[in-house]
Amino acid sequence: MSGPDKHPEHEEPVIRDNRRVDPATGAVREPAAGPAGQASSPFPGAGRHSAADPADPNQAAQPLSVDLSAAELDLARQEAAERTADLQRVTAEYANYRRRVDRDREVQAAAAKSGVMLDLLPVLDDLDRARAHGDLTGSFGAVADKLIAVVTKLGLSTTGKVGDHFDPAVHEAVQFGTSAEVSEPTVTTVFRSGYEFGGKLLRPAVVVVTGPEHAADAETPKAESPEAGASA
């Protein structure tokens, strides 16, 4: 009789079918319950890490800490300063460009308006002559008044009125006389009105200037007497 078997009986391997679909019936199998009533998963490692709950403050994203050396930190600061300086320079250049474009646009607009006003001066001269002869009446007078109102609103102004002090910068004197009624050179007659637009003179006024008599007497040299000439 042989003694007790020293080696335990060899255990047969255990085969578990973890397929989700039964190959015989084609039905979906329910997952087998694991320990503590939890459903087992056919995927190893499943359930070890639960999905992060965004509402849980303990699972909120934490700021990423990066260890930088002093040299790397200085380099990063230098690059940031260079980028900031570049941005400031580009911003200043763009602002200067915008101001230059706006200024050029205003100059071009003023030049275009001045050209139109200069072309209208002969028309305004005709209106002045018609008004002087009493022909600027009725509907024609109404149209003339509207035209003058429009150009005045745009900035056109007349120069050279009777009684103005003579200014050679805006007056063109074609005749000069004297009178005891004036104390300084004064415009007494206007042959043609002058005009200014945008602070610039488009055309001087053609006028007659009258000065005081004592000024003319002072400028006239006195004639020498015959006795003075003989004694000389």
Automatic annotation (TrEMBL):
Q: What is its main location?
A: cytoplasm
Could you tell me the superkingdom of the organism this chain comes from?
Bacteria
* Basic and acidic residues bias locations: 1-22, 214-225
UniProt KW keywords: Chaperone, Coiled coil, Cytoplasm, Stress response
Taking the record's annotation, the residue ranges forming a coiled coil are 73-107
What are the protein's GO molecular function terms?
Answer: adenyl-nucleotide exchange factor activity; protein homodimerization activity; protein-folding chaperone binding; unfolded protein binding
Cellular compartment(s): Cytoplasm
What ranges does the record give for the region Disordered, renumbered to this chain?
1-66, 213-232
Name one process (GO BP) from the record.
Answer: protein folding
Cross-referenced PANTHER family: GRPE PROTEIN (PTHR21237), GRPE PROTEIN HOMOLOG, MITOCHONDRIAL (PTHR21237:SF23)
| HAMAP family (UniProt xref) | GrpE
According to the record's subunit comment, the protein's assembly and interactions are: Homodimer.
Family designation: Belongs to the GrpE family.
Record's function text: Participates actively in the response to hyperosmotic and heat shock by preventing the aggregation of stress-denatured proteins, in association with DnaK and GrpE. It is the nucleotide exchange factor for DnaK and may function as a thermosensor. Unfolded proteins bind initially to DnaJ; upon interaction with the DnaJ-bound protein, DnaK hydrolyzes its bound ATP, resulting in the formation of a stable complex. GrpE releases ADP from DnaK; ATP binding to DnaK triggers the release of the substrate protein, thus completing the reaction cycle.
Q: Which NCBIfam families match?
A: PRK14164.1
What name does UniProt use for this protein?
Protein GrpE
The organism named in the record is Nakamurella multipartita (strain ATCC 700099 / DSM 44233 / CIP 104796 / JCM 9543 / NBRC 105858 / Y-104) (Microsphaera multipartita)
